[in-house]
Amino acid sequence: MISKKILYILGIPVALALLVYFFNYNPEGGAGLFLPCPFKYLTGLHCPGCGSQRALHNLLHLDFAKVASYNFLFLPAVGVFLYNLFIRVHNHYKEKKLVNYIYKPIFPRVVLGLVIVFWIARNIPVKPFSFLAP
């Protein structure tokens, strides 16, 4: 189990970064704090993570339609993160332990398959696939 000290050491910078993202940084403007995607720069194609910075910014502003338009897999990824967090907190404080399906052997294979299919589909320049591009 992760100690509280480590959680504070990691949690405070993450919280500060999210506050900066919320108030002072809008990646939709073009120039940003981060380098452009090297995969897109080299190939001209979208990687599975393209649009995630803009999706995070819009998620912090609760604009779920824009989140989905920038990166359709971002909301399910946040859902998996929250599910894992809930199960871990629940199992830490309750006697009745819940099964965390993320740790089943099939889960990473399914996620990898979905990411590969998404990666290919978002680079097909034909509707409806073109809606997956950021």
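Above is the first protein from milestone M3; the second protein from the same milestone is given next.
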Amino acid sequence: MDISHFRIHTMKDVAPLKFKEAKIIYQKTKNKKDFSQFLYYLRKNGYVKIKNMEGGKAIILEKKGFKKILSTKFKNFKLKDKKRKDGKCIMLIFDIPENRRILRDLLREVLYNLGYKMLQQSVWICVYEVEKETKFFLQQNDLDKYIKMFLIEEQKI
């Protein structure tokens, strides 16, 4: 599932997926019982909700579900052979307002999964080549205005 077009704002911003379409896609490889169990799991854990819509039912992705998808995407990110060859580090400093707490917490999880190490709650550093992935996440979630990103190198004294 390509999530690059999702942004967290309100549930009205999340386009509903028709229940029948999702069921057909899933049933190509799984049986009806597995689909029902999977859907039950998603609903029970607050990842989706089922809503009666004109013309049938729809599966609506909840904020918690979006967070799970995004964090899973970056959890599977492989750092092998991604270490910066120039010996420099990326430093990220952020100040995200309280009303965007969910995104602030998600940012920390994504940074960790990208290989960043926390120096302080809002200061993170990374020795890997992950600027592209970091900028993608920040821009997709409208966080770039709260972030300062630096390329730094250690100075020997």
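Note on the second protein: Residues 33 and 107 are 36 Å apart (CA to CA).
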